[in-house]
Amino acid sequence: MNTDKGIKLALILVAVYVGIVVLFESSLGFFQPEAGNTIVIETFDGAGNGYTRVVSLLTSAGNEYVAVNHWPRAWYGRLEEIPRIGVTRDGGRTIFGAGIVSGAEHDRVQADNPTPLAFRFLTGFPPRYFVRLDPQ
């Protein structure tokens, strides 16, 4: 009987945690908070339709990056297909090439821009990718 109670408790805790992650991610997606170092990016599908998203701007070794560090990441899939990204900041809009980052560059950007454990917990520990903004 105690084993059954332990399993039920574990399942309840997992369900509560998943609920917290879904609520946190959904609220970020809905409210799209803009503050500090945030920028508005626009990604494009094959038909040329644009989709906007608010993300944080990161820097490392003189380059600018955006991080893919949430589970909702359809915009990243579009960038993999069409590596072009519109960036709106300070009232102006610029089109950049989107460089998918890997290897030593990824490790450097991660080290220069660590993610707090509390944030990782609230987002469900998603894998983190980086996109370099390449001037065109």
Characterise this structure.
- By secondary structure, this protein is an alpha+beta fold.
- It has a single domain (2-135), classed as Roll (Pnp Oxidase, Chain A).
- It has helices at 2-31, 74-81, 103-112, 117-122; strands at 38-44, 50-60, 63-68, 84-89, 92-100, 129-135.
- It has a six-stranded antiparallel barrel.
- A hairpin with a 2-residue loop joins strand 4 and strand 5.
- The longest helix is centred in the first third of the chain and has 30 residues, at 2-31.
CATH architecture: Roll
Number of discrete helical segments: 4
Write the H/E string, N to C.
HEEEHEEHHE
Task: Report helical residue fraction.
Answer: 25-40%
Strand order of the largest sheet: 1-2-3-6-5-4
Shape: elongated
CATH topology name, in short, is Pnp Oxidase, Chain A
The structural class is alpha+beta
Regions with little confidence, pLDDT below 50 for 5+ residues? none
Given this structure, which CATH class is correct?
Mainly Beta
Largest sheet: 6 strands, antiparallel, barrel
| Count of domains | 1
How many extended strands? 6
Approximate strand percentage: 25-35%
Q: End-to-end distance, in Å?
A: 65 Å
Name the CATH homologous superfamily: Electron Transport, Fmn-binding Protein, Chain A
C-alpha Rg (nearest Å): 18 Å
Nearest-integer average pLDDT: 90
Question: Would you spell out the secondary-structure blueprint of this structure?
Answer:
Layout: H1 2-31, E1 38-44, E2 50-60, E3 63-68, H2 74-81, E4 84-89, E5 92-100, H3 103-112, H4 117-122, E6 129-135
Antiparallel strand pairs: 1-2, 1-4, 2-3, 3-6, 4-5, 5-6
